[in-house]
Amino acid sequence: MGCNRKALVALIGSVFMVGTTQVFAGPSASAMANTCAGCHGTNGQSVGPASPNLAGMSEAYFVEAMQGFKKLPKDKSHAIEEEARPATIMNRIAKGYTDEQIEQMGAHFAKMPVYKAKVPHDAAKAKAGAAIYDKSCSKCHDENGGLPDDDAGILAGQWLPWLQYSMADYQSGHREMPKKMKKQVEKLSDAEIESVLNFFASQQ
Amino acid sequence: MANFTRRKFIQAAGGIAAVSALGFPAIVGAASKKVVIVGGGVGGATAAKYIRMADSSIDVTLIEPNEHYYTCFMSNEVLSGHRQMDSIKVGYEGLKGHGVNVVHDTVTDIDAAGKMVKTAGGQSFAYDRCIVAPGISFKDNIEGYDAAAMTAMPHAWKAGEQTVILRKQLEAMKDGGVVGIAAPPNPFRCPPGPYERACQIAMYLQEHKPKSKVVILDSKDKFSKFGLFQQAFAKHFPNHIEWVAAKDGGKVTRVDAASNTLYVGDTAHKVDVANVIPAQQAGAIAIKAGLTNDSGWCPIDGRTFESTMHKGVHVIGDASVASPLPKSGYAANSEGKTAAAAVVALLNGKEPGDPSLVNTCYSIIGPNDAISVAMVYDLVDGKLSKVKGSGGLTPKDSSPEMRAREVNYAYSWFENIKHDSWG
User: Fold this and answer.
1) Measured distance CA(B341)–CA(B276) in Å, rounded
2) What percent of the residues of chain A are helix, what percent strand, and what percent coil, each to the nearest 5?
3) Phi and psi for A194 in degrees, rounded to 5?
4) CA distance A1 to B197
5) Pick from B341, B376, B415: which is nearest to A97 by CB?
6) Which residues of chain B neighbour A165 with C-beta distances below 8 Å?
7) Do B368 and B403 form a contact (C-beta atoms < 8 A)?
8) Which of A167, A88, A197 has the alpha carbon at shortest distance from B409?
9) B-contacting residues of A 133-162, CB under 8 Å?
10) If you compute the radius of gyration of chain B from its CA atoms, what whole number of angstroms results?
11) Which residues from chain B sit within 8 angstroms of residue A75, using beta carbons?
12) Which of A28, A176, B10, B207 is the most buried (most CB within 10 A)?
């Protein structure tokens, strides 16, 4: 096995850098990310019934969510004018981390494989939801809502109450819908939306 | 150009590790990596699991007397009848699956100098690092509250049989009866617990025994989530919960189990069901092992949770002095992970990193109504500290829709923390 001396020196340098960073620059990504597990499951794999899975979501989506929570004042549940994401408790937790720490946690969860939980759902609604997904959602939520790289969150195998809360926040105007999404959602009936949420929840 | 073999590279890398770990020369290359964990509650179980997940070469033995553990969190829902005992019961199969050696025995001695743990069953366990998670024991602050009184007037502050006794007493009580809760002085396990309990019992009374009420006789003038609980008492239970502050004659000093009477000085409160929660201190084994100071709790180093009384022994959970973290289940889970990471680092000759901790705590205070408190903690100048700007309480004016979501998130908290600790 050939080994470039220059590359080795660089490698040794990076080992020192990592060691130094861990000791002096605050908690490691895993130390921070592990504190999420009490609500979001070990390694971001939630056992439900409502807290979403974090495993495998893209770093960009994680950062967007946490920054949205950070913008929500502590005494409010929603504040769309401040570009905040509605929350019960996450606004109070997100404020505990710097932007860099949020990025580190995002990178940590992004390295994990996507986790699709076995979520209780209505099979008939999920079946009906498949066609609605194809027509109205699939352009942005790739692979039945299971592709991290679309940066639209992981909806596949996601806990149904969380999907319902998220959609309720969009429809009430408490959370800003991307224009393309708004156009599609406005065309759908409540029953159709319920079906497509069951479709996402049913994905394995 | 030198021809570098994989082996030479590993040797070179090993050299780097040794250099960067100069602060801990004695530990480098230590062959033995044995950890003994005393206590299989939230903290102990979490530490065991997370050590094994981080480094499966570490030999972890967890010693716990009971074959099943009943979580204190959500046990108040058993009192209201909203939940069965089975749902707060956890076993140790999950930990065994992670390769933890689970021993059901009672630890009688922790010899920090000899690095040895001994049990009532006559077993001895040598360790390189010991993690002690003994929970709480009760102080003798209430005259007459002896072993017999504990059955007649259950504390139900360690879940299990005590929870069942209290539930049965509530079921047997006549309509029109009074449930007396003697709430403990600070610091104690689960600061919002007595008040969530009052709400849960009141929900049961409203539905099944509407002429009855709960009277909380408190050793304090204020408590956790104070404003939110006052709001809940007034909103949901105006006729079913009465709270008496210490300054207004709430501090119970004596009980008479035979007549179900709680005494505040000379004033007698005769009740139909008495839930007496005494003052608390660290679990008995921590006191015996000399891990406690004058406060009755175990002082620790905030980075590693290593005892400042005995080297090589870490104390986590309710027994430790981890202020500003509260004595809560979520804090114990977070502390378990912090101690686990520190122990893994130390046993591998590395310096423990900076800790990051979180507390989240839900109280279910009425039908479809839950509230929460949260906080993020880190280490500042060697001391555990609240991260500025983080944390806080559910807003007082949050909508019924958001309160209902908090109930569902409380259940998610419960299912996930059980799984994260024991699963």
Assistant:
1) 38
2) 60, 0, 40
3) -60, -40
4) 67
5) B376
6) 405
7) yes
8) A88
9) 159, 161
10) 23
11) 395
12) A28
- What is the reported pTM? 0.91
Chain A positions touching B381 (Cβ under 8 A) are none
H helix or E strand, kind and range, residue B420 = helix B400-422
Q: Which structure tokens are listed for B362?
A: 């839900």
% residues pLDDT > 90 (chain B): 92
Please tell me the number of Cα atoms within 13 Å of B176 on its side-chain side.
Answer: 1
To test the contact with chain B by mutation, choose from A88, A99, A104 the residue with the greatest count of B C-beta atoms within 10 A, namely A88
Task: Give CA–CA dist B49/B46, Å, rounded.
Answer: 5
Question: Could you tell me which of B262, B281, B250, B274 has the C-alpha nearest to residue B186?
Answer: B281
Convert the pLDDT of each residue in A143-161 to its tens digit: 999 999 999 999 999 999 9
Can you tell me the distance from the alpha carbon of B193 to that of B216, in angstroms, rounded to the nearest whole number?
12
Taking an 8 Å cut-off on Cβ atoms, the answer to whether A161 and B408 are in contact is yes
First to last CA, chain B: 51
Distance from CA of B42 to the nearest CA of A (A): 11
Does the distance separating the beta carbons of A34 and B50 come in below 8 Å?
yes
Q: What is the per-residue pLDDT across A19-65, written as a single tens digit (0 to 9) for each?
A: 444 444 799 999 999 999 999 999 999 999 999 999 999 999 999 99
How many residues in chain B? 423
Q: What is the phi/psi pair of residue B144, to 5°?
A: 90, -5
**ipTM of the complex in this document:** 0.91
